[in-house]
User: What shape does this take?
Amino acid sequence: MPTTIFTIANQKGGVGKTTTAVHLAAALADKKIPTLLIDLDPQANATSALGIEKQEGRSLYGPLHGESAALDMLVPTSYENLTLIPSEEDLAAAEIEIAQSENYLGKLRTVLAPLRESGRFRAIIIDCPPALGMLSMNSLAAADYLLIALQCEYMALEGLGQIMKNAERLKTAGVNNALEVGGIIMTMFDIRTNLSREVVEEVKKHLPEKIFGTVIPRTVRLSEAPSFGKTIFEYDPLSPGATAYRNLAKEVIERFKLREPAPAS
Assistant: This one.
């Protein structure tokens, strides 16, 4: 089956980006989609959210410098069908070092090519740093689809336009002609406020074909789970957050045809 690479990005922090990357990856794996989660954020929140310790030399830092292979960085998780490439603090230095190298926007695409060609994964999900720096731009250059985690507040709408423009620039510059905005995931939806509903309606009005039908609620349980090194599916499997991410995974599988076999070559 072909491998589809998704990058989950937003230049603003605290919007549920990492929570979405971790839980979408875990929910896809639960539906028997072989999935790889790549933690590209030096803070390593996605790594710790899966209960995995940071390990020196166990990230994409070495592969990005041509010193090792991405296939050697794979770490199994406690979830069947879910593999992780962890993060480490050294990735922070990569932001500067990559910018000084040749083909600086294509580094990650080159590193991920053997993973894509291996056929081991149907979906690869990249969790980016909360900034449109060199690592995030590399993830956009390597991805098939950009998934935008968007908090249900008006300030977030300004950032939506910015990240979509950056994606379009990479396409028009020929850096990644295949890149598409795969969808917008509305996060931190507060059912008690009119504001959350108004922001969702605003995005639906302007980008009806991009917004996912599932909205991710703002819940204490989702916030608590990572501190125990667990996903919401382990921590509170019957919670609204767990239900929402299962529903999002169903939408992603259907929208991107993740169950379809590879076309005959």
